[in-house]
Amino acid sequence: MHRRPKEVRDVKKIGFLVNPVAGVGGRVGLKGSDGARIQEMAKKLGAVPEASLRALAALQKASGLTDQIVFLTAPGVMGEDVVKQTAFPYEVVGTLPDGATTAEDTIRIAREILESQADLLMFAGGDGTARNVCEAVGMELPVLGIPAGVKIHSAVYAYNTKNAGEALEYFCNESRNRYEEAEVMDIDEEAFRGGTVRAKLYGYMRIPVLHRCMQSVKSGGYSEKEHVAGIAESVVSQMTPGAYYVVGPGTTTIPIMDRLGLPHTLLGMDIVKDGKLIKADAAEKDIYDLTKKGEVYVILTVIGGQGHLFGRGNQQISPRILRAIGRKHCMIVATKSKLLSIAAGRLTVDTGDIELDMELAGYVRIITGYQDSVMFKIES
Description:
By secondary structure, the chain is of the alpha/beta class.
């Protein structure tokens, strides 16, 4: 039986849709979740779907809105199962056939939510999900994305689950919302797994003007040779004998591996110890197992333009790993020009664990060159 909203004025109808397999390939190092083959491979590697958990965390953040919202939710695993765990009233829109969900289900149900005259469509997923929603609703219905995928270049997503819940609160409490166009981007996953980032603009959707909560489109091209060479020299000179170093993805970390004379997985995690490559393109379990063997450091850069540190392309660094090693064992590297490109002027984290995100907040030291660093703020 569907719960009905209380009889109050100005109840907003919020569409709700979850891609249940979004991000399933992240922890196991598959660099995406598009396609049945990759999803099956992720399951065999022990991947656990997290999109529904992230969607639930966002709704729980907005739990004070139960008298102001009725959710028009997709059925079953695509939304209903999440809303059932809250006190929000809801109605189910559309039907879902038995078996695995598909992109076509997302497109069809998003269209039905549009036809049901929703005020906003809130959805959980990654760039592939954003493309499907864009195909379904275009500019006709405002959207709010809950980040749950591996690759999230699109600007229709909140910074993290906490910000997604806050954005919903702001939207529902505002008498007259303003909107802006936001880019929907996606990359070629096969090329991505081969080390090539081939991003493409697929279209635009409308989002509420909530810059404090919403990420900007990812930017690139800030790895100046002189600065990153200095960063590499500084990192290598600080390495502790006997410790494990997990070198993260991105062009800023390539010179570190070059300085060590080791091959580098551009879009993956490489494990190094005493100048030797222990494992290339490591999965989350590989890294977590190290925390039981010895001292572990993680070397990561930030995403230019957006300012993301955890939760975008580096999901192999999971909450349990971060809790095991502590923030002091996270070595952050970035050029000053990359830091200047961050539109919000702050870093953000989206580990999938809201409490951990809050624990990570505060000022951190970022290595910006040889014997050069700056302090930069992380906000949860």
